[in-house]
Each structure stands twice: as C-alpha cells, then as structure tokens.
Amino acid sequence: MGSAQKERSGGRWAPAAGGAVSGLVSAFAGLAVAELAAVAVRPEAAPLTAVGGAVVDRTPAAVKEWAIRAFGTSDKLVLTLGITVVLALLAAGTGILAVRRLRAGLALAAAVGVIGAVAALSRPEATWKDALPSLAGGAVAAGTLYLLVTALRRPRPTPGRPGGTWPMDRRGFGRLVAATVAASAAAGLAGRRLGAHGSARATVSRADLVLPPPAVPAPPVPAGADLRIPGLSPFLTPTGDFYRVDTALVVPRVDADTWRLTLHGDGVTRPLTLGLRDLLARPLVEHDITLTCVSNEVGGPYAGNARWLGVRLADLLREAGVRPPSEGGPADQLVAGSVDGMTIGTPVETVMDGRDALLAVGMNGAPLPFAHGFPVRMVVPGLYGYVSACKWLRELRLTTFAAYDAYWVRRSWAQQAAVKTQSRIDTPRPFADAAPGRVAVAGVAWAQHRGIARVEVRADGGPWRAASLAAADGVDTWRQWVWPWDATPGPHTLEVRATDGTGQVQPGTRTGTIPDGATGWHTITVNVRSS
Hints:
Elements (H helix, E strand, L loop, with lengths): L2 H36 L8 H12 L2 H11 L3 H26 L1 H21 L9 H22 L2 E2 L7 E2 L3 H38 L52 E6 L6 E4 H5 L4 E8 L10 E10 H7 L13 E6 L4 E5 H4 L6 E6 L2 E2 L9 E3 L13 E7 L22 E6 L5 E2 L2 E10 L5 E8 L5 E2 L1 E2 L9 E9 L2 E11 L21 E7 L3
Parallel strand pairs: 3-12, 14-21
Antiparallel strand pairs: 1-2, 3-4, 5-6, 6-9, 7-8, 7-12, 9-10, 9-11, 13-15, 15-19, 16-17, 16-20, 18-19, 20-21
Helix pairs in contact: 1-4, 1-6, 1-7, 2-4, 2-5, 4-5, 5-6, 6-7
C-alpha cells in the first residue's frame, strides 16, 4: 500500500477510532468524578448503582425470577456488567457522533448524566442531592469529550510538505488521552478510598462488637438432627454458604455506633428510637430458624438454617403500646424500612402471636455479616423473606395493608405469604450416575412454624415409601430425611413429598413462584449403571 493510499485510509478510519476512544475516555472521566461526588452524598447515588437499582425496580417480576434462576446469586454482577457494556457502547457511539457533529455529541453525553440523575431520584429514600453525582459526571464527560474531540480535529502540519496535513495530531491527542485517563483514575481512586474510609468505620464497629450471652439460649441441636450423609445439606448452614437474594447492588456497610432504629405509626403510644447498645441491653433470645426465599423454585437452593440471636419483636412492640388486631389494635401491617430504601410488610398479628419473631443481631454465634443485614435485621419464622426478613433495618412503621403496599407487593407479589411445605432431594444429584444396589436418597423438608411430620419418596411413579426422619429441632427449622433405595440398572425418576405438622400433604401440582411461592414435588432423574 502506497503512502497516499495509507493517508486516505487513515483519513477514513482514524476520526472514527479517535472518536470512539474520546467517548470511552470521557465516560471514564465522568464516572470517576461521579463516584467521587457520591462519597459526599451516599453510595446508592453513584451512577452505576443508581441506574442498576432503577432497572431492578422496573424489571417485571417474571424477568427477575428468570434472572435468579439463570444466574443465581450472581444476578447483580451480571446486571452491573451488562450496564457497563451498554454504557461503553453508548460512549463510543457518542464519541463518533461528536467527531461529525460536536454539539449533538456533547448534548448526548450530558443527557446520559441526566438519565443517571433521574434514575438516582427514582430510588427509594432519594433526595435532590442524589442527582448531583450523575449531573456532575455528565458535565465532566461532556467537557472532556469537547477537549478530546477538539484535539482530534486539530490538524498537524506535515514536514516537507508545504500546506500538507495529517487528519489529526496523533501524538498530541495521545498525550491528552493519557493525561485524562490518569486524572480520571486518580479521581476514581480517591472516591474509592474515601468511600472505603466510611466502610472502614463500619468494619471496625462490627469487629469491636461483642454480643452478650442470650438470656434465653437455644437448646443444643438434638443428637441425630444432622444425618451427615455425603451430599446432604448440613443441618446448620455455614454463614458463608447461606443464600442471599436482595436488590442491593452495593451491600450497605452500616456503622453500628451511629445506627438508629425508629418505631412509630398507627397505634404506637410510645414511639421509640433505639441504638444498637439499647437493643443489646435487652434480654436476647437465641433460636434456630430456617429462612426461605419466595423465589425458591421447587427443589431450589434458596433456603438455609441458622442459629439467630436477637430481641423479641413482640416485646418491643408491646413496649411501644402496640396491640395486635385481635386485641383491637388499629394497625395490621408492620412495615420494615432498610437503609437502602427497601420496604417489607409483615402482619402484626403474626409477629405478636407468640412465635420467636426477632430483631436479629447475631447469626451462628457471631454478629451479622454485612451481606446478611448488619447490624440488625428481621427474622420471622414461617414467613417468606420478602414479607418478613428486612435487612439493614432502620425503621419500623405501623400501618394497614389497605393503606400501604410494600416494595414487592407493588411488583405483583402477594401482600402476605406463609412458607409452603416443601421437600428437596439433595443426593443423588439430578442426572447423576449411580452404582446398582443400595443408594441413600436424602434431602431436607421444611414447613416453618408447622414442622415436618412425614416425608415420602417414590421411584418411577410407584407407591410412596416413608423416609426416615432425622431428629427434629423444633417446628421452625428444616428436617433432614433419608430413604434407602435398591437401585436397579437403567434410568429412574425419584420424587419426594412432605407432610407438615398439621397433617397437610405437600401438593403435587406445579405452580411458579409468583405471587406467593412455588408448589409441586421435587423430581429428579438418575441413571444407574449396569455394573
């Protein structure tokens, strides 16, 4: 290729490539400044977090359920990566547009900042300050794009060719890009470090927290409650393995020393404002409770059992003057508010009916992890998490179901939802290859606050056979079971069903998770080898 042809090729492609680079670098600069600005507001005001949260808020329930099935607890990471990719493509396109039509490109860059601001303002608990990081980022992105595109369009005289020019000054443009990236990286790093400083205070407050011994300790786990069969879920779920399903793209890190809880609303005669030390000074109750997510499909993984430590919620409500509806109280809904804006509505009657509904401060012998609600969360045995298990708790408000719909209710879920009786085969795994002969088919079953009375298994649609149950640890935890199966060569189908403590048999009709939890029998297919 001759020099003239190279020059023509460079003239054709260089402006587009330079524009794309300009757009990407400008977006990086805008995001870095916005992240830095969000430190002065709140982490949820950062553009990626705000846009991601707004997407979660507006995604139809069926799509959310698909995302949970497809990506599990990585759904938030996938969403963030998707938003980042879309933003990068938009930034590159904006840069290319700016090379051709500068004003249009600058307007589009600024408009992206406005979109981020609108997303931030749409989030729960948002104030006008939440718009500032995205607006600042948009302004910086537009200004940076102007500088880069102007430099890109500036011709450079060609030595030895009077009046001749290259399409652009590559070296000068490259130096400007490098300087912009360096300055943006410094701003982003400063934002991360300043944000980490606040997180560090929260981390220190958790590390320094010593939980008092319970006034009402949980009894030891009964001998025989954990069958210890390979492949079977342990009776107590290790904290690191406990499922997490929520809408928080960034896990709130709350400073326990400054945390406050307010209790107010209909029927409250003595409003309360409590710090963590106030809660810890009260009698603490320890109780083993299995939690279940309403998004858990039949046979799904979103159930876990832990030993919780906390204050009885009913005692706190009575201290505030609250009476349940059965005693003439005006409020039938307790709305729990999280520091990230989540709202969860729980029946007042349920939390005051004598069960160990807790404001939990501890999990498996340690302070709550940040991912599971530190410093305080709600735990109510017998209810799905979306109507009971508010994490990062900051407010309790008494109202009625007729007057207020909590977050998930506004998104097609039922106002009230007791946990449905479910059972699951943990081993063998679906599509496993098994050796012929005696095979231990084992799993867990749960019907919180009713207990499990019976589990049955059948093979290939044959008669139901009673499984052996592990020892029960009360009615609020799951129960392990095992059935010895004489496996013969070939493909086989295994099914399980449970009966709760009231005598109700788990229904076999398959329904989805929306609006109040899935039903059906967990069914797996296994292959037994011929030898």
